[in-house]
# Entry
Amino acid sequence: MLRIESKIQEKLIETRKKRANTRHPETQINDKFSFDSIDSGFDLCNYLADQYTEAVKENLSDRIKSNLDTAEKNLEMVLDKYETILYDFSTDEDVLEIVRELNENQGDREKNSISLRKKLSHICNQFTGVEGITIQLKTGEIMYYESLSSFSGNETWADKVEIPKIERGAVYFGDGKPVKIADKNHYMFYIARNITDYRIIENFQGTVVLSVNEERIRRAIASDIGSREYLLSDDVIVSAPDPKKIGKKLSEIQDSENYQYTTADHEISGFAICNEQPLAYYWKMSVSQWIYLFIIISMTIVIMFILLHFFSRPYIQAVESITGVMSCVEQGEFDHQVRVNPHLPMEIQQISSGFNEMVAHLEMLIAKVKQAVLDQKNAELSALEAQIDPHFLYNTLDTINWKAIENEQYEISGMVGALADI
# Structure
């Protein structure tokens, strides 16, 4: 029994030493929750950063695609408008008759030339953006009218317009060369169509070229503020926000470090539309969004810490209660118990109840050990007394006997001897 009590005391001392070298459980739990929260916060930051980067890239791609789609639709509308003007002119019966007579040198040639120029001037003056119109007869003769100087003659720019060979339909082209009027450069976009008698398909009479101010094309393909659109013909710029760039190759003006270039083919005209998107806009949007994202993440982490503290506090209090009672039990105060909170999870309740039962069992065991030790001591004392009493009585009687003999009291000596024999 003494060995059992000694082992219990040693166990309590060992537990006390371990607790002396161990941090407070609340600190450990808080650290665990803190590290878990930080890890979760970093995971959330990484996830949101990846999602945001993809969203920004997708947003930029969608923006560019939207700009290109809008530019393509607007360009189609403008080209369709001027192509319709050209088609109506090239199929006009009066125009066909005048051109046929000029080609065949019939009728009054001067009168026909004046009538044709009137029709040309009517087209230029009636429709905004049409700066000139040029006709090359089947004979090779050039007839034209241009509105930049309101003059028709032999020394103007309209007679120098390139006349393409056309198999069918309309042809769109731009040479990127300026038309210089009064020391000012004007750039043209051209639409050409054959003049053919629709009653006789093979009856080719000439080619008509409509000269449209490049500014009309520029406005049509222009998108929102920040980006710029170029119209390209085999990498040569034929329309640009900055007229100084017209006629140059796109590869010559590209600044890939500061701009992103995206090109889309325009099937109807055969040109390509290039979108120039400044990366500064992308970075500006990224910075503002990153700040917004940082605020959201910071608020999320703060809220997460608050929620973790709120939800973990009952558990920390339960652990503190258990460790407090453990300290009391180590000091030998077995009358303390852990309060079982029914609102906590079943596991915590089981730990608290189990600890209380263990303390009660330990107190009962120590009481039994103490009682066993006390009973053993009493038994040893009784056995010792049982051994000491007969010997002590015999010595006493022997001493009386000799005293009686010494005083010649033989009768008393006989009586003591008889008593000792009993």
Q: What stands out?
A: The chain has a mean pLDDT of 80. DSSP finds nine helices and ten strands in the chain. The first helix runs from residue 2 to 20. The beta strands are 130-137, 142-146, 170-173, 178-181, 184-196, 204-213, 228-233, 236-239, 259-265, 272-278.
